């Protein structure tokens, strides 16, 4: 099992100016730095790869999906922008040797509407068409896509593993799977362990965060059941801590983070890693 930390714990957006994060996470004992591509203009793959290889840290790419990157938008121009952005993320993943591009790539985060059945079917078909193209492009470049269900307050579209699997069935591309996140599952799933087992081999990536979006092991997530379920389905992929910095106002507002959830970002990452390593090395 390899463990990672998201750049969101410390910075937004990630760029060459924040490459010291590679050294930081290596010193803490992480194997992976999950890099969120907020602004592709800030990403210098050659410079980033050089630093990562120097420190011995692997990259994993995730996306940021705002209104202009909505793969299920009614506006074909917006869908085209979303696909172009996903292709850039895939290109970065290939250059940085990331096995996946992950995130809620089916819609814009924060898009919450009360749609009719027909409207939802239309949205679903638009997302399927976009993600099928992205999945084909990713496959051609040796990269997989991991779609993330989010909680009801962040999207009206894909909230549960069951909904995610239905979307995967429609996309019908083995190269496209799921990113599961304990924070979102804690809100939406009747039983988190059952949902993990339901996802099975479709789990391409895994995010860990406590029920309050803080340090793993400090809340009421039933971590031993999460571990057992992952072991039961044979998951051997990355386990990444994704948390956010309340000092970065735009991100804090986007994820409704109104107070610090640890004494510092470093403490959240270090203590979370210690907990996860102990959890998985029983």
Identify the notable features of this structure and list them briefly.
eight-stranded parallel barrel, 44% helix, 282 residues, alpha/beta, single chain, TIM Barrel, 10 helices
Shape descriptor reads globular
The main pleated sheet reads as: 8 strands, parallel, barrel
CATH superfamily: Divalent-metal-dependent TIM barrel enzymes
Helix content: 40-55%
Return the CATH class.
Answer: Alpha Beta
How many strands appear in the DSSP assignment?
A: 8
Indicate the multimeric state. Answer: single chain
CATH architecture: Alpha-Beta Barrel
Ends apart, CA distance between termini: 13 Å
Give helix and strand order, one letter per element, not per position.
EHEHEHEHEHEHHEHEHH
Structurally, the number of domains stands at: 1
Number of discrete helical segments: 10
**Strand order in the sheet with the most strands:** 1-2-3-4-5-6-7-8
Instruction: Work out the strand percent.
Output: 5-15%
CATH overall fold name: TIM Barrel
Give the low-confidence spans: none
Structural class: alpha/beta
CA gyration radius, whole angstroms: 18 Å
Mean pLDDT: 96
